[in-house]
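Observation: inputs received (chain + manganese (II) ion).
Thought: call the complex predictor directly.
Action: predict_structure
Action Input:
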Amino acid sequence: MWRELQPIGRHPGTGGYRRFAWGGADLECRDWFREQAEARGLVYELDRNGNQWAWLGDPAAGDAVVTGSHLDSVPDGGAFDGPLGVVSSFAALDELRARGVRFTKPLGIVNFGDEEGARFGLACVGSRLSAGQLTVDQAHRLTDADGVTLPRAMEAAGYDPEAIGPDRERLARIGAFVELHVEQGRALDITGDRVGVASAIWPHGRWRFDFRGEANHAGTTRLADRHDPMLSYAESVLAARREARLAGAVATFGKISVEPNGVNAIPSLVRGWLDSRAADQATLDTVVDGIERAAREYAEAQGVRLDVVRESFTPVVEFDHALRDEIARILGADEDAELKVPVLGTGAGHDAGILSGTVPTAMLFVRNPTGVSHSPAEYAAEDDCVAGVTALADVLEGLARR
Ligand code: HGY
Ligand code: MN
Ligand code: MN
Ligand code: MN
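Observation:
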């Protein structure tokens, strides 16, 4: 199975790790999902939002136990963020069959589409649409860097964009959703554990800072006469690091676009996208307000106009405590429920976070000794991956029997 993970994770389709929604490599990963499902005699389904499902038993019976994750990636992401959860789901099913487990409830495996939001800028599009957290109109307006809208991209991939919308009936038939994911940090490496259980997802969001200045000649314009948005942007990046450090939060300007983007032209417009996350809402608000306040001061000093748009936001997700504790017991908590299995929070968003408002949801993390993610350096050792599969199989067996 792990050999299979590598090609899926390092898809050669578009330069290795570029598995963007509805693009070539993403579609080939989707084909791989369907092949894996059909090879196991599972009933394959594509839902109205392009999420893929593989069923053992009839989901209409309800109270299904579902596991899975996503196969798309960020630009030059890693081989494990997403694919590890999907591959482990198929491997866990194989293990349960090998154990001779009889399933009293439907068991589902899901690949949620467009989790990273790398192409259209919004994370978890597939799960947000199904959970009704993204309207059809908002989704139809999503546009990529080449001006291709989500509907056009879906159509080009042979999917019907008019079909998208809430899928609450499908979600109502799920009794528990468990997403296994590579840890995007080093907590398990520090405690020396192979597998952990998630407690919560930090509140996080994406803001677009538009700095509008005055295009001019880089060589002939006196410094005193410049209204250079790049300067205001650069000072705002430093402010983001300062505000985050002060608050014990994180803030990243990870994406920028410049117009006219010429080496010898003072820009007219610099767009910077901020990703900020914190352990609680109040802290996140403090950090982002601080960054915006500093950015406005810098812009004013340069005679630059600043507009800030909040493009997406995910409130704190506290995973279902009863399900989390049941999973911890299944994974070996001792009699007095002292959790042997580490329980850890995460700053990374997940489809499980989106679903948690609708379905009892939990997450398992697999140790990542590098702690690195959203980079080719992301890693999970094979024996930790196998431990993750065994843990997931134990959890699915326990939940399918309750
Ligand atoms: O951005 C995130 O936290 C997730 O990997 N989509
Ligand atoms: Mn990710
Ligand atoms: Mn992920
Ligand atoms: Mn996820």
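Thought: report the result.
Final Answer: Residues 231 and 302 are 8 Å apart (CA to CA). Residues 11-17 have pLDDT under 50 and may be disordered.
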